[in-house]
Design a protein that fits this description.
By secondary structure, this protein is mostly helical.
Length: 652
């Protein structure tokens, strides 16, 4: 058979001999597949036949490819690119360029089609053999190779294009425009002319459109990796050594923007055939993405992330330093529910920048690359924002211990920003795009996420999403500073009500025309003033936490300071004490219908004191828990009930 393959007397005879040889080899392969399954003990015989077939294929494929290249040259492929100029690259459709695949006729067309079919059948035979030989191994990796016939179309186009590329090193936008123009102009012939022949050859799982596009993108990525990125990397290294700023960083960011735009246009070309790309199809995305250049050079990805981070922080610095941006609220809806959190304008700026980095990250073709980029460029922006919030609050606390209104407003704005950040990150984390990154516990380069992100969180928590650690930090920050505000206000109230709390004799005296105790007025005024400032500046959710916490603290303060202080309550004193509590409850009535419900011990203590003598004595004379339950006393102990009862003095 090998001797017959070497005979090449006429093109037609050569093509017929090749088709016969391929058909014979196909029948042989079918027989070997059957023998391998039914007679595994004949493995050495199968191996010997395999060796002879390999020798035949070593002659067949080079001959078929050589003939295919000769036919392409006869057709006038690749089409001339010499008439292209930078201005002509911007045209939406190139009607003046003829497609040799559509214009070929007669014997030439027949020969090309026969040769194309032969290449496809040869590749299908090769794939069938690999499938049998790789049984028990990861077949998918080895089986799917680029379509040989499409590669033969792309290679000469790529060589011709690079003569233009060399003139446009400083104008990479022309390089992307040329590649896209060629890809778009000839993609229709892939669907209309070549795909039917691939289907006829029963080469399953191949789309000529996708193969053409991916091969063109691969040629571009190869050129970027060999000629463009090394130049930029060299410029950056020179800049770091000399300390003299150059245009290298700007050029790099411009190149990335071009890659993003190019990939979007390429993706739309692929999807025109009805193929919808999803996040799970990392293999497909990698083939049609110019960002696949980073798959083999993770150090370039790290460098890009570093540049993006530095550029983002530089843009944000003047906005974060401007005090007005911390007091002015977000105008309009930057992200969902911004008004609910009274977030300062600086929050909108932060999340616009983080969203921009996420958009850049979406262009990367694999989950590992996206996760790596976001951890290196996006999350440090959030950490910087957190550090800024913490510093502002610590400065406010250090200067005045949060006693003045200005310091309270500063902390309230920081809490608003933290709560908004927490909300947005939780919202994002529900998206499968970010969940996948959180589940990505290491990348394809053999490094763990913790190694390059500096993260200390347990690996099992990555399933919560890539932003899990930042969400926890913002949540803890908010909880901590809300609690501090509550404590500061409670201490202020305590300081101003100290005389009121210590004066036990006042509950035995008649009031002097005052409905409310004089010594309590200052404390109530302080409380109302502080709560008004906090309510105006703090978001509703955290303000609710503060007033409830404050009510609980005041309940303990009054109960322990007055009701448990052995103060004797006469009728007039009890009446004034009731008025005092009504005014205190009134401060909280703006935020709830029954404020006394948030002062359980004090309210029940007052309830005990207001009981009739006989009813109260029933509780003091061994009524116990049963009596307490019958009289609606649920938050006091038996000892506390007895103590309060002993302090009631009936004067009427």
């Amino acid at each position: 058979m090998n001797k017959n393959l070497r005979k090449d007397s006429a093109p037609r005879n050569s093509e017929e001999i090749r088709l016969i040889a391929i058909k014979t080899l196909k029948l042989t392969e079918d027989l070997l597949t059957s023998v391998s399954k039914t007679r595994p003990q004949w493995a050495r015989l199968v191996s010997a036949v395999d060796h002879r077939i390999d020798r035949a294929l070593a002659i067949l494929r080079p001959q078929a490819i050589a003939d295919h290249r000769a036919l392409l040259t006869s057709l006038g492929w690749p089409p001339p690119l010499s008439n292209l100029t930078s201005s002509s690259l911007d045209t939406t459709k190139s009607s003046e360029v003829l497609n040799p695949l559509f214009t070929m006729q007669g014997d030439l067309k027949h020969q090309y089609c026969e040769n194309f079919l032969a290449l496809c059948r040869l590749q299908e035979l090769q794939r069938q053999r690999k499938y049998r030989q790789l049984e028990g191994y990861n077949r998918e990796v080895a089986l799917h190779q680029p379509l040989w016939a499409i590669e033969e179309l792309v290679n000469p186009v790529s060589v011709a294009s690079q003569r233009h590329f060399s003139k446009w090193i400083d104008k990479p936008e022309f390089i992307f425009a040329l590649v896209y123009k060629i890809t778009r102009d000839y993609v229709d012939s892939m669907d209309e002319l070549l795909q039917p022949m691939v289907d006829e050859a029963m080469l399953t799982g191949y789309s000529c459109r996708e193969e053409w596009i991916s091969s063109m993108v691969a040629s571009l990525s190869t050129y970027l990796a060999k000629e463009i990125f090394p130049v930029y990397v060299g410029q950056l290294e020179e800049e770091s050594m000399t300390g003299i700023k150059s245009q290298a960083r700007t050029s790099w960011l411009h190149l990335v923007d071009l890659m993003v735009s190019f990939d979007k246009r390429i993706k739309s070309l692929v999807e025109q055939s009805g193929i919808l790309l999803s996040l799970q199809e990392d293999g497909t995305l990698r083939k049609i993405s110019s960002f696949s250049v980073f798959c083999d050079r993770p150090d370039w990805l790290d460098l890009w992330a570093e540049i993006e981070l530095a550029d983002t922080l530089e843009k944000l610095k003047p906005e974060m330093d401007e005090e007005k941006n911390w007091t002015k609220k977000v105008q309009g809806v930057v992200l969902s529910n911004s008004d609910d959190y009274k977030c300062p304008a600086v929050s909108g700026s932060i999340f616009r920048c983080v969203s921009s980095l996420i958009d850049q990250c979406r262009s990367l073709p694999t989950v590992s690359l996206r996760s790596r980029f976001l951890r290196l460029a996006g999350i440090p922006v959030l950490k910087n924002f957190y550090d800024c919030l913490l510093l502002r609050c610590q400065e406010a606390e250090g200067l005045t211990a949060l006693t003045d209104d200005e310091a309270l407003v500063k902390v309230a704005n920081s809490i608003n920003a933290a709560h908004y950040a927490e909300h947005i990150l939780k919202e994002w984390s529900e998206d499968v795009f970010f969940l996948e990154m959180g589940l990505d516990q290491g990348d394809e380069f053999g490094e763990s996420i913790a190694e390059y992100s500096g993260s200390n969180i347990p690996i099992e928590e990555y399933g919560n999403g890539i932003f899990h650690e930042e969400i926890i930090k913002f949540e803890d920050f908010r909880t901590q500073w809300v609690e501090k505000i509550s404590i500061v206000v409670l201490r202020g109230f305590d300081a101003r009500s100290r005389d009121y709390l210590k004066n036990r004799k006042q509950w035995q005296e008649r009031s002097e025309g005052w409905t409310v105790s004089k010594t309590l007025v200052g404390a109530l005024d302080y409380l109302q003033g502080k709560m008004s400032v906090i309510e105006e500046n703090l978001n509703k959710l955290d303000f609710a936490v503060i007033w409830r916490s404050l009510a609980s603290g005041l309940d303990r303060l009054i109960f322990n300071g007055i009701l448990m202080s052995n103060a004797k309550f006469h009728d007039d004193g009890l009446e004034r004490f009731g008025y005092d509590l009504d005014v205190l409850f009134g401060v909280f009535r703006a935020w709830c219908l029954r404020p006394e419900g948030f002062f359980p011990k004090t309210s029940e203590g007052l309830k005990l004191l207001k009981m009739e003598k006989k009813q109260l004595q029933g509780g003091r004379t061994g009524g116990g828990e049963k009596w307490m339950k019958e009289n609606g006393i649920r938050h006091l102990s038996v000892a506390e009930v007895e103590k309060i009862g002993k302090n009631r003095v009936f004067t009427k």
